[in-house]
TrEMBL record:
UniProt gene name: tig
Pfam families, A to Z: FKBP_C, Trigger_C, Trigger_N
UniProt feature coiled coil, ranges: none
Protein name per the record: Trigger factor
GO cellular component: cytoplasm
EC number: 5.2.1.8
Principal EC category: isomerase
Keyword terms, alphabetized: Cell cycle, Cell division, Chaperone, Cytoplasm, Isomerase, Rotamase
GO biological process annotation, one example: protein transport
An example Gene Ontology molecular-function term: peptidyl-prolyl cis-trans isomerase activity
Family, as annotated: Belongs to the FKBP-type PPIase family. Tig subfamily.
The reaction(s) this protein catalyses: [protein]-peptidylproline (omega=180) = [protein]-peptidylproline (omega=0)
Repressor found in the keyword field: no
Amino acid sequence: MEFKANRVDEANVEIKATISKELIEKNLDKVAAQAAKTMNIQGFRKGKVPVAVVKQRYADKLIEDAQGEAIRKVLNEGLKQLDVKNEDLIGEPTISKFEKKDNGSVELEISVACKPQINLGDYKSLVPKVKAIEVGIEKIDARLTEIASQSAPLEKITRKRAVKDGDFAVIDFEGFVDGVAFEGGKAEKYPLQIGSGSFIPGFEEQVIGMKYEEQKDITVQFPKDYQAKDLAGKDAVFKVTLHEIQERKVGELNDEFAKQMLPNEKDATIDTLREKIKEQMVATEKATYYREELKPQFLDTLVEKINFALPKTVVEQEINFALNGKIRSMSEAEINELKENPSKIEEIKEELKTDATNSVKATFIIDALAKAESIEVNDQEVTQLLYFEALQMGQNPQNVIKQYQEAGYLPAIKMSIIEEKVISKLFDEKLEK
């Protein structure tokens, strides 16, 4: 067997080899003999099946196994020659060439991705200035009023006034498209909060002004991107009957209200509640500031300033992932055009290359920063995140976790948590006092 192993750079290894016909036949004898020991074939005792019979019956599978044995030998010897250890590898090696020759030999090329060697340098000097988050008393009081409104009980309006913005209108409705009722378009005694934006655009606005037991036809148009494709972009008429108007009665914002909102807080006052609200608002605004303003700027700087070799196969996987996402968003006509013009796919991949490369580079940098900052995320943290997100969406947490697990998304979620922790730690250290 002839082979040549080459370390292209710190993150990429290429191994080229010619596997002789003799080696493949030797491996074939070996795997056939092993199979004969356990195989059940009618007319022979178990373990006594002649190797020749095994070869005859399972030739294709055995040849495949024999070739696989040879490939593993090439890979192991190539990595040993270059002193590349298994813990240095990323993912599975890629066979970029497997060509059978007329003389029975096989020409082979294997690409191996290795973990990049990253010198972070003085990375903390690249962290941007982080301004302190200030939340004024007006915002705090506005949030306090909002909380009071959300927690206040609903009360039926006894006076015969019309529906106004902010009311809860208890309605019956049934929707029709081209005069035909459609599935999911009917409900009775439905409590619709006017101004919530929970219904089709234009619906809630037309409920405003309705009075008790009034019936009204409301005309709307479904959004073009509506989830039910058979309704998307179509005009609809809803027959609506108003039965009741409800509104929230907000009580006085005092210490008693604070005690209701903070049942575990001893001697809570309205000022205590204001302070809690302030803490929550500062945390929320800080997270948004970090995520939307500072993080993109910081990652761009890291990608620009920290240079190292990237594993080509990982970059190629990221390009293909981005390509698949782009194709999923295409129309049928655009997809057909790609099928008729395959070169267009290569053009799109070239367009996606820079962003994909930077994304891979940023991920490796974040991983290196996490090690430098001694930041770790365990599987329990990933599970907890998915658990609470599932509850917020009204879904079964165990089912959601299982779906993510089966789809292979857990490592990506774990990496996103690591990224958030790294970013928060570095930015918090630069936060103005």
